[in-house]
Structures are given as structure tokens and as C-alpha cells.
Amino acid sequence: MAAVEPIKKLQEQFNALRAEVGKVLVGQEDMLERLLIGFIAGGHVLLEGVPGLAKTLVIRTLADTVDASFSRIQFTPDMLPGDVTGTQVFNPKEGTYSVKKGPIFGNLILADEINRAPAKVQAALLEAMQERQVTLGEETFRLNEPFLVMATQNPIEQEGTYPLPEAQLDRFMLKVKVGYPSKDEEIKIIDRMAGSGSEPRASKIMTPEDVLAARDATRQVFVDEKVKRYVVDVVAATRDPAGAGMKQLDNLIENGASVRASINLVKVAKAHALLAGRDYISPHDIKSIAHDVLRHRVLISYEAEAENKTSDAIIETILENVEVP
């Protein structure tokens, strides 16, 4: 098991980081929590929500608090892969090529409206996310660590967009749905952003090295065999609900979650436990993050759409019926 004292220290650091982000960001605690989990679990996060819900603000502020480099890529239909990864530039005077690195070379990357870019641009981004490296000409460059891509997509505007294929969606560790703030939170946002004073900025609380240390500690978090079995039972129920005693879901699921879902459930649960100050994961950690790990991996059928069933509703039914150790 991981040492408790280092985890308690990391928990205190992340609590201080949350408080510092809270000086800029009003509400949206769940979005920040999921972003932190992805950051220390070593995965990428897809946010789905309408514009104006502080998605850009949260990742830019997180970059300030961990003293990390931040890049924002606004995706458009006329983009080329080189606009993301970089390219080789020809120098006619010397007859040589030099490398110009793209915005992907940063610690925290905001891929804004990723579904507006054509498939070849999406593929270039997702390859860099998976391989953690970019090849330009004959040279291969490792990407900076820690490295996190937070992609956003607008769920209500589909004209002129290129929806991510399911196999590429699977590359994201988490898919988080972002909702509107409460009325009280919205008043605070107005006071903070439209008041007479200057807009607040967050101060440095941690370093990239601290984040990498948190990743190392996360890998050491203990997972009991019974919890591993619980994870596999939950994921297997998305593939064969009838075999798991949920025949009512049999016609509602087109495709279940892959093995990558089981791996990511454990990784994310470890990060969730670390942020709670524990050196072990419990079934509660699995339940707390299951929707974010599985909602983009459980593909619903036409029958489910006809019955207005969502992947979240199906996942909730599975969590209610799979026996908890």
C-alpha cells in the first residue's frame, strides 16, 4: 500500500489548489474535480456543454496554479494537422528545413470545439494524445510532461461539425457533462467578472514536478481483488446485460465498453481516492466516477433512443444491480 503521509500531504496541496482556483472560478466544482483527476491519472478529458460555462477559464486557471504552460487551439473546418502538431519550414537562403512546433507542445492543452475540425486533424491530435510524441519530418519530439488535453464540444450545434468516431472517443479517459451554474453562483460570476475591479488571477500553488509526484503516488494506491472484480463486473454488464441479470437492457445497448474502460476505471478511482486522502480505493470511488468513464463508451441502440433512454440512465441501472463487495 502507498504511504499515508505523502498522500495526506498531496491532499493538502490539492485542497489549497482548489481554494486558489475558487478565487477565480465560481461553482463548477465537479468540472474542476474531474479535470484534476484526469491530470493526476494521466488521462485526457472531454467536456460537453454549451458555450460560456467557464471551460476555458478552468483549464487556464489550473495552468496558473501548477505553473504549467497552456495552449488553446480553436478548431475550425479549414484546419490542417500541422496547425496542431507543427510543421517544417523551408529556409530558401540556406536551402534547409527548420522545425516549427505547434500548440500541442504544452502541458495543458485546450482543444476547443474539437468536433469542428476535419477527421485528419482530429486524428493528428488523438495520435499525439496517445503516443505522447509528434514526428515532424525525420525527427520525433516527446511532448511535455505532465500533459493533459481538455477537449470541448457543443452538444446542441451539429451543423458543419465532424463528430468524433466512437473508437476515437474511447481515447478520452473521461467525458464530463457541464451544466449551468445556480442562480446564486451566476450572481457571484457577474460581480466577479463584470464588477468595478480587475478580473482575478490565480497564484502558483504547485509545480509540474508536484503533479508528476502525485501521479507516482496514485499508481501506488492499493486495489483489493474484490474491487477489481467489481470493476470487471460493471464493465462486463455493459457488454452482456442479460448475462448480468439485466435482460431489460439487452436491446438498449448497441456496443458495450472496452477493456480500456476497466483500466481507466481503476486509474481514475485511484486518483479519486488520493484526492480524498486515502491510499486504497473502495467501491464508492468506482461508483462516483463510473458515469464519466463509461458514458462515451456505452453506445445506445435505436430502441433506447426511441424510449428516450440515455447512456447515463443505462449506467445507473447497471450500478444499482451489480453486487457491491
Question: Can you walk me through this structure?
Answer:
The chain is an alpha/beta fold. It has two domains: 4-212, Rossmann fold; 221-321, Helicase, Ruva Protein, domain 3. Helices cover 45% and strands 15% of the residues. The strands form four sheets. It has a five-stranded parallel β-sheet. Strands 3-4 form a two-stranded antiparallel ribbon. Strand 3 (86-91) and strand 4 form a beta hairpin. Helix 2 crosses helix 10 (259-275), helix 9 (225-239) packs across helix 10 and helix 10 (259-275) crosses helix 11. The longest helix is centred in the N-terminal third of the chain and has 18 residues, at 4-21. The radius of gyration is 21 Å and the shape is globular. 39% of the residues are buried.
- Individual helix count: 13
* Principal-axis shape: globular
Percent of sequence in beta strands: 15-25%
Mean pLDDT: 87
CATH topology of the largest domain: Rossmann fold
Would you state the CATH class of the largest domain? Alpha Beta
User: Could you give the order of strands across the largest sheet?
Assistant: 2-5-8-1-9
Radius of gyration: 21 Å
Summarize the main sheet. Answer: 5 strands, parallel
Number of strands: 11
CATH superfamily of the largest domain: P-loop containing nucleotide triphosphate hydrolases
Q: Unreliable segments (pLDDT under 50, ≥5 consecutive)?
A: none
Total individual domains = 2
What is the helix/strand order?
A: HHEHEHEEEHEEEHEHHHEHHEHH
Distance between the termini: 20 Å
Alpha-beta content class? alpha/beta
What is the share of helical residues?
40-55%
CATH architecture of the largest domain: 3-Layer(aba) Sandwich
